[in-house]
Design a protein that fits this description.
Elements (H helix, E strand, L loop, with lengths): L9 H14 L49 H21 L6 H14 L1
């Protein structure tokens, strides 16, 4: 069954292309190296009560050019610094009077807006 195609809306088209590429890789999508959208497809099995972490680093560098690899201690330092910066920012925006659950919901909502 073909997905319903919108009236030329770019976002809808990108979603269709990404979806088509997962379902029928040879049938659709832009030529290699073209486009502004991307999707990672990680088929994982997460056990009940378990968790899985996927590391992603967007870069214009080729994999072979990393001296210590893209996920070295530099990655951890950068991740920790960005997480600390985000915590500091959200403390200035989210009221302390909210419950922890409400603070979490507001942070996720704001994250979607940013």
């Amino acid at each position: 069954m073909e997905p319903t195609r919108g009236a030329g809306i770019a976002v809808a088209r990108a979603r269709i292309v990404i979806s088509d590429n997962l379902l029928r890789p040879a049938r659709s999508g832009p030529a290699a190296g073209e486009g502004t959208k991307a999707a990672a497809h990680y088929p994982l099995v997460v056990p009940a009560g378990g968790n899985v972490a996927i590391r992603l680093r967007l870069s214009d560098r080729s994999p072979g050019t990393w001296t210590a690899g893209p996920f070295s201690s530099d990655y951890e330092r950068t991740w920790t610094a960005r997480h600390t910066e985000a915590d500091a920012f959200y403390r200035t925006v989210i009221p302390e009077t909210l419950s922890p659950d409400a603070q979490s919901v507001m942070r996720q909502s704001l994250g979607g807006v940013l």
